[in-house]
Amino acid sequence: MMGRWLRRMSPLRNLALLVAGLKIPFRTSKYSIQFRFILAMPTKRESTTLLEPVSAKVKPPPLYKVMLLNDDYTPMEFVVHVLKKFFGIDEERATQIMLKVHTEGVGVCGIYPKDIASTKVEQVVDFARQHQHPLQCTMEEV
Ligand code: TYC
User: Fold this and answer.
1) pTM, to two decimals
2) Atom 7 of ligand 1 has which residue's CA nearest to it?
């Protein structure tokens, strides 16, 4: 009996709650409306969930190291040029990395988010092929 009355009154009740939540400041000529949170007992027809807990677990994006591989044909000067042009490395550091690759077989040029790393790999391989060098560049998650 009371439940049916409450349900029938529901739109009115919601309006009353909304008006109760309005705030009209005195000193301005124009009205501004602010909505406050209203704690209300939900009726049967309304959703009972007002606020849901939100998961705040946000992982940083995975990083990838971009590497050069050694081969017997690509000129040393070309590798140094690639390191300077695509990875912003200065001459001295580029020479060190090139020699590391030459002696150890592999060396890291930089560490980037996935899409940047794959763009670097593509740019280096394209550039090497344009100059007919077999230089290999690859990436691997850190
Ligand atoms: N090994 C090459 C040479 O002797 C030089 C080289 C260095 C090639 C690094 C590739 O990633 C490389 N000319």
Assistant:
1) 0.64
2) 102
